[in-house]
């Protein structure tokens, strides 16, 4: 493929959340399509990371891209996350649009300085004079006995640190539109995909990991939550795989006359505070479901949003998160800490009991 | 690898090298005066016109002058927490640079960065306050230049302490693997704050480490600006012509403390340090050989003094940022939500 560089071309306005149509894709295929369509249009976009080439990404985020775009634009890297994430930063500063994969969110420990001290801060430190239009995508989440170092979500950690947008899609439609928006963004975007929403053939999956996706390019604006299901009795504010579980619970409880609203945050930064307040204003009962660790993270933040707005809105509030322990290996233990449908259902029943 | 033989330089090049060093020293002396002026009688690091940590580069001017003489504004340069000499030598404008150090709205980063975080996109100049972490972004700049099929290079500067960081080794490997047009420069000033290199580094020369990554490595002794100039010229030409990266280590001199306020009680060579000041040594040599005359030297000093004074006056008279504007520039659009 060509190795010549043309600068980033701002696309003609892309459709914003168009009708989904009938064609169905898995989340991983939707992500691949978003990247591929951007790469076709924009020479400045390239992909880099461990095993993103012929393997196609360990969780199939880049399948087929090497064949289509060649090794100049789809680059396998050494296992040197500091070096190649930093390389992405410098390339972005010089006008390219890198999509860099950190294989597991859990691996940030070996490269966090580039992420939070460089990628996230250069724009601010330079008074807005230097932009870092880069996507850092990473797999997250557990449920398949991968142990304490390969099962974490950690999105709350990235969201805590200023200067990066943090996007966490739950389904194929949003994954494509959010990836397109992330590539188009002039700011660094951390794109966290839960392995359980990718629709992989080698992992148990919820049927919602395959869904209707338009063929055309479109964006899902970063920072806008989605009402995944309307309800009146209780609001579940959640994201990623936990959206699937929450919807399953909501469907089950509907027959008992319990009406559950499910809010899919879709991004942590920016956080759609209005959508949270709007839903809780309606239901008065808030359950935050988050597969990240419970303390000092997203769940507390969501509750604080409502409390700061109007604490009297909160008739009931609770959290279904991973308690503050490393993710255990043994299946029985792991499923004791994950926010399973059973735990979510119990929380809903408890919330509506009073 | 032995350093390349110093080519016979023209007198004009020699005067330019000295002129750059004089400008840098004049600048650092002025910043030092300003820094201490309002921190008396008790030193308070957070007080005064220029607050915060201040890492001045006096003694290390030969590195900046020798390298940057080969660079164009289209080449990239990443520096460390001690960045002023490199910024000045690479042509970063003194007014906005100084305003940034003073924390003013007219600064390179509108007062959001400070002296360790100087970014000048017009010179592709940046620096990082984190040891060795400026190297990986330099790889990316070189990667972009390589993809443009251009002859542009990226120069990444660190101290000898940084050569023991993982980022250094990851960066050397990746640069060599992808044959990126990068020149790595290690400023060996003998001290990682208070720890001498004998207590930090397993090899006598960091240039030896280049062999581990399959790239040329060269060590320049004696803080010689002409030897730096020769080594950098060869390395930069290699990068420009597609020959991949080079590692250069320069044995330089930290004339002052790690940061201002550092009493350097740990330093046994404190009394003899001024004897090794590279600027009078080089000046005297040029005077002796006839490459420079007194009049030329005086006008060099005068011009440097005027430029530095102008920059400091500009900074002092510039507005401070509006405190209500503290959320701007987190993202490229809008205010942090």
Give your account of this protein's structure.
The complex is a heterodimer of chains A (354) and B (337). Chain A is of the alpha/beta class. Chain A has two domains: 23-219, Thiamin diphosphate (ThDP)-binding fold, Pyr/PP domains (Rossmann fold, 3-Layer(aba) Sandwich), CATH 3.40.50.970; 226-353, Rossmann fold, CATH 3.40.50.920. Chain A is built from twelve helices and 16 strands. Chain A has a seven-stranded mixed sheet with strand order 4-3-5-6-8-7-14, sandwiched between helices. In chain A, helix 1 (27-41) packs parallel to helix 7 (172-184), helix 3 (81-93) packs parallel to helix 4 (112-119) and helix 9 (273-283) packs across helix 10. Chain A is globular, with a radius of gyration of 20 Å. The model of chain A is unreliable at 1-6 (pLDDT under 50). With 337 residues, chain B is α/β, with parallel strands linked by helices. Chain B has a six-stranded parallel sheet with strand order 2-1-3-4-8-7, with helices on both faces. In chain B, strands 5-6 form a two-stranded antiparallel ribbon. The N and C termini of chain B lie far apart (54 Å). At the A-B interface, helix 3, helix 4 and helix 5 of A face helix 5 and helix 6 of B.
Q: What is the H/E string of chain B?
A: HHEHHEHEHEEEEHEHH
Distance between the termini of chain A: 64 Å
Oligomer type: heterodimer
DSSP strand count of chain A? 16
- Spans of chain A of at least 5 consecutive residues whose pLDDT stays below 50 are 1-6
By DSSP (H or I, 4+ residues per run), the number of helices of chain A equals 12
Number of domains of chain B: 1
Average pLDDT reading of chain A? 96
* Percent range for β-strand residues of chain B: 5-15%
What is the CATH architecture annotation of the largest domain in chain A? 3-Layer(aba) Sandwich
Please give the largest β-sheet of chain B: 6 strands, parallel
């Amino acid at each position: 493929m060509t190795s010549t560089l043309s600068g980033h071309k701002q696309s003609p306005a892309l459709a914003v959340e168009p009708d989904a149509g009938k064609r169905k894709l898995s989340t991983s295929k939707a992500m691949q399509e978003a990247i591929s369509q951007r790469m076709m249009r924009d020479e400045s976009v390239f992909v880099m990371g461990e095993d993103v080439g012929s393997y196609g990404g360990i969780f199939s985020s880049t399948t087929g891209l090497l064949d289509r775009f060649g090794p100049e634009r789809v680059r396998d890297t050494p296992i040197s996350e500091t070096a190649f994430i930093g390389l992405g930063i410098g390339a972005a500063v010089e006008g390219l649009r890198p999509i860099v994969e950190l294989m597991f969110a859990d691996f940030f420990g070996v490269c966090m300085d580039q992420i939070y001290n460089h990628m996230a801060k250069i724009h601010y430190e330079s008074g807005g004079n230097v932009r870092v239009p880069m996507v850092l995508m990473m797999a997250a989440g557990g449920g398949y006995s991968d142990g304490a170092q390969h099962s974490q979500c950690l999105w709350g950690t990235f969201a805590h640190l200023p200067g990066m947008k943090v996007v966490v899609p739950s389904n194929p439609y949003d994954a494509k539109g959010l990836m397109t928006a992330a590539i188009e963004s002039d700011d660094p975007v951390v794109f966290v995909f839960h392995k359980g929403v990718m629709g992989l053939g080698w992992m148990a999956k919820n049927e919602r990991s395959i869904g209707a996706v338009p063929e055309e390019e479109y964006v899902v604006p970063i920072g806008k939550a989605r009402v995944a299901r309307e309800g009146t009795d209780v609001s579940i504010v959640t994201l990623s795989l936990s959206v699937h579980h929450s919807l399953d619970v909501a469907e089950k409880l509907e027959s008992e006359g319990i009406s559950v609203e499910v809010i899919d945050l879709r991004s942590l930064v920016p956080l759609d505070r209005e959508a949270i307040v709007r839903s809780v204003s309606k239901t008065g009962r808030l359950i935050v479901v988050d597969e990240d660790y419970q303390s000092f993270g997203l769940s507390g933040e969501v509750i604080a949003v409502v409390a700061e707005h109007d604490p009297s809105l909160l008739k009931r509030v609770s959290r279904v998160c991973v308690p503050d322990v490393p993710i255990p290996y043994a299946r029985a233990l792991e499923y004791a800490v994950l926010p399973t449908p059973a735990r979510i259902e119990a929380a809903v029943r408890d919330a509506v009991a009073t | 690898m032995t350093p390349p033989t110093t080519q016979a330089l023209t007198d004009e090049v020699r005067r330019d090298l000295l002129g750059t060093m004089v400008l840098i020293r004049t600048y650092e002396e002025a910043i030092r005066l300003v820094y201490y002026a309002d921190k008396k009688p008790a030193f308070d690091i957070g007080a005064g016109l220029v607050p915060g940590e201040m890492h001045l580069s006096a003694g290390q001017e030969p590195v900046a002058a020798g390298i940057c003489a080969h660079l164009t504004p289209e080449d990239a340069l990443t520096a460390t927490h001690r960045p002023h000499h490199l910024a000045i030598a690479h042509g970063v404008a003194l007014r906005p640079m100084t305003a940034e150090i003073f924390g003013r709205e007219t600064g390179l980063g509108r007062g959001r960065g400070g002296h360790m975080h100087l970014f000048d996109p017009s010179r592709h100049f940046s620096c990082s306050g984190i040891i060795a972490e400026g190297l990986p972004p330099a790889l990316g700049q070189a990667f972009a230049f390589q993809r443009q099929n251009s002859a542009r290079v990226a120069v990444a500067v660190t101290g000898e302490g940084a050569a023991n960081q993982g980022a250094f080794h990851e960066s050397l490997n990746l640069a060599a693997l992808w044959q990126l047009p990068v020149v790595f420069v290690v400023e060996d000033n003998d001290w990682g704050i208070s720890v001498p290199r004998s207590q930090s580094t397993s090899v006598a020369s960091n240039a030896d480490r280049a062999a581990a990554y399959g790239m040329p490595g060269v060590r320049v002794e004696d803080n010689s600006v002409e030897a730096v100039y020769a080594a950098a010229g060869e390395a930069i030409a290699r990068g420009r012509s597609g020959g991949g990266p080079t590692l250069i280590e320069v044995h330089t001199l930290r004339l002052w403390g790690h940061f201002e306020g550092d009493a350097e009680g740990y330093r046994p060579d404190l009394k003899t340090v001024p004897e090794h000041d590279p600027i009078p040594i080089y000046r005297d040599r040029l005077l002796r050989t006839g490459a420079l005359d007194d009049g030329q030297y005086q006008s060099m000093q005068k011009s440097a003094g005027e430029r530095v004074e102008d920059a400091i006056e500009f900074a002092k008279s510039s507005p401070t940022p509006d405190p209500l504007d503290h959320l701007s520039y987190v993202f490229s659009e809008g205010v942090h939500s």
